[in-house]
Each structure stands twice: as structure tokens, then as C-alpha cells.
Amino acid sequence: MRLRRVCVIVTALACVLFCCAPVTQNESEAPGKTLISGNISSSGSLPQAGVGRHDIVDDNYTMPRGQVDPVIFVDIYERGLAYPGTTLLADIHDAENPRIIEVNLLGEVLWEYRVPYALRRFINPGFEAQRLPGDNILFILPRYGIFEVDRSGATLWSYLDGKISHDADRLENGNTLVVWGNDQKADIQAKEINKAGEVVWSWSVKKDFDHPPYSTIYADGWTHANAVSRLPGGNTLVSLRNFNLVAEIDPQGALVRTYGEGVFFDQHDPELLSNGHMLVANHKPQPPNNAVEIDPGSGQVVWSFGGSQWVPQLVRDADRLPNGNTLITGTNRIIEVTMDGKIVWQLRLKAEIAREQSSGKGFYKAQRADHSD
Question: Measured between alpha carbons, how far is 307 from 155 in angstroms, rounded to an integer?
């Protein structure tokens, strides 16, 4: 992976440039509006630590160096065991200064994007970012819109809609899957939109779940749908947090099956693995939370990490890495753990957020970017 220029988005100028967009838009107004090639920000340079230096991790990967950050640090890093690459994450430990950062395995910041001031109220529920092929960044401002920016911070594409939250996935066809969690029964919980902002596929939970025991549930929305992903065969997974299950939907909008009943609790970010198992970040009724892998055939838990193995905190994301390790995101820490429970990498907030104050704060999701892509 090439060495990236460390850059910061200059917030004051960003707000000025964004004035062309409807930042005063009502949260439920103007769904489907798109802004193509508009700017919400400008870029500047941060002084770099270690410019021109590289730390060789192994024969195939040269680590780019960045800047030491005052609020995060890495205290565990097992070379040769941690999967090589950079980590992209949304950071809302300070709700007044939400940002997206990319860090190396030492915790040095390689790239930073600060949300423009006028939009900082749109960070919950589920301020999420992901690195796209080609190196652009796709992120959600919940209850406002989805944005794709380049590394200078320029907006290449956006979709403004007050009924989106938690998760957006860019598909191979260039369309984007989105989900809406602070929902009512009449809402669409998952939809696919094209580059023009047109809805080309959607699913409403009501036709399949408006019956006991689901019909009377309500907690920050009816379903509080919090994740969506497209499977290789064309079906779609939708995580229905309040129902403690994940639904699989076919291209015609029919319910194929559900996952996790009796095991999942307030689950986040389900991932169907190549072995047919499902990995989720699971919120138990009582702390601590954990990452759980289940065999859908038997419904049995085949792997988990959490409890006494880690500092109790909200677990919001779990990703299986190509080397078999799992990247787990909690409120205060992001770890990479082996299948036998050994933590081989850990990024931490210096000032950790107390459990009773952790709702809507801290880290939400993280993505390990493969150095070869």
C-alpha cells in the first residue's frame, strides 16, 4: 500500500463550502435527494511524524507512518500475528468533534476527516465509515445522508434522506444498500439506491413481522434495524435489533429465513462467513457483551470472545479477517483476537468512557483495510 498523505479537514472552511447543501433540512424531508460532485469540506496538511520512514512488518508489507494522536494509543501489537493493513474507524468519543480516522498498526493517524460543524448533530444512531475500492470513503450521517468523499475531503456523491442510520454498503454494481433503524411500522427498513438516488429494491418488515411477539415491540424504533448486507447469491441480510434476530430476504422481497433466535440479543453487524456460520457483535441482557459465531444449522455457538476475556463494554462490530482473526470494536477499544482468544492488537482511548455514559459515544465500527487492495 502506498504511503498516504496525512490530511485534516478544515472544519470552518468546510462549513462554508457546505452551505450549498440543505443543512437545515428537516430530518424526515427530501428523501432521495442527491448531490453529485459537491464539496462539503476542504483539506489541509497535518505535520507528519516519521515522514520518509517505514517500519517493515514482514516480507510483504511496509507500514506507512503517520502522526501520534493525543487521544488514542496502541498498547498491544504482535508482529506476525496481527493482520497487516490500516484500520478505518468512526470516532465519536467527543460528540462535539466527531471524526473519521485511518490508523496504522502503531495507532498513528494516517488520515483524518472531521465532520463539518453544521452537521455534527447527525452522528447517532450509527455513525459509520468504510473504505471503498479505489480508496474513497463512504460514510453515514444518521438521519441526514450518505456521503462518498475522496482523500482530500471533496464530496463525490451523496444521498440525503432523514430515514437512514447505522449502515450503508456499496455494492459491486455501484448501488448502495442502506438501513433505517428509528423506524415506525409504515417505514421501509432496508433499500438499495442507485447513483441517481432512485430506490431500485426495498423491504418493509411489516408484511412479515407485524404479529406477536413482534408487533408490540418498541425501543428507539419498532425494529431498530441496524445493519444490511448483500449475499453473493443476491439475497440480503437485515439485522433487526429489537427482534433479536437477523432476516434473510430474497430479491423479490420474500423472507427466506431468520438467524439467531434464542442466541442473539440486540445484535450488531452480522456477517455470514465462508463456512456458512454467522458472526455478530452480541449485546447480552447484562454486561459484558461479546462477539459470537453461530452455526445456523444447529443454532449452537461455535466461537465467542468477551466476558472475562476482555474489559466489559458495549461490543458494536465484529469482522472476520483473512488470517482467521477477528476484529472487534467496543466503546473504548478495538482489538484483533485469534481463534484461541489471544489479543494480538489493541487500540484504546486514553480517557475511557464509563459504561453508564457509553450510549452513542466512543468507537462504533472499524474496518481493517487489506494492504494488497
Answer: 41
Identify residue 201 by its one-letter amino acid code: W
Residue with cell 459465531: 293
Domain boundaries, the chain: 7-370
**Res. 372 pLDDT band, cuts 50 70 90:** low
Q: Is the peptide bond before 142 cis (omega within 30 degrees of 0)?
A: no
Average pLDDT, the chain: 84
* CA distance between the termini of the chain: 8
Q: How many CB atoms lie within 10 A of CB 226?
A: 29
DSSP-assigned letter for residue 98:
-
Task: Give me the mean pLDDT over the 87-109 stretch.
Answer: 93
- Please say whether the beta carbons of 359 and 343 come within 8 A: no
Q: Which residues are CB-contacts of 355 (< 8 A; sequence separation ≥ 6)? A: 287, 312, 313, 314, 331
For 52, counting Cβ atoms within 10 Å of its Cβ (0-12 exposed, 13-18 middle, 19+ buried), the class is exposed
Strands (E), 117-243: 129-131, 137-141, 145-149, 155-160, 168-170, 176-179, 190-193, 199-203, 225-230, 236-240
Q: What is the pLDDT of residues 159-218, one digit of tens each?
A: 999 999 999 999 999 999 999 999 999 999 999 999 999 999 999 999 999 999 999 999
Closest among 275, 270, 279 to 248, alpha carbons compared = 270
pLDDT in tens, 232-286: 999 999 999 999 999 999 999 999 999 999 999 999 999 999 999 999 999 876 6
Is the domain covering 7-370 a CATH 2.120.10.30 domain? yes
- CA 138-306-310 angle, to 5 degrees, is 95
- Under DSSP, the state recorded for 354 is P
Give kind and range of the element (H or E) at residue 14: helix 11-17
CA neighbor of 264 nearest in space, from 285, 287, 235:
285
* Residue 98: HSE in the Cβ half-sphere, 13 Å Cα cutoff: 26
Backbone dihedral region of 26: left (phi > 0), alpha (psi from -120 to 50 degrees) or beta?
beta
Mean pLDDT of 11-35: 36
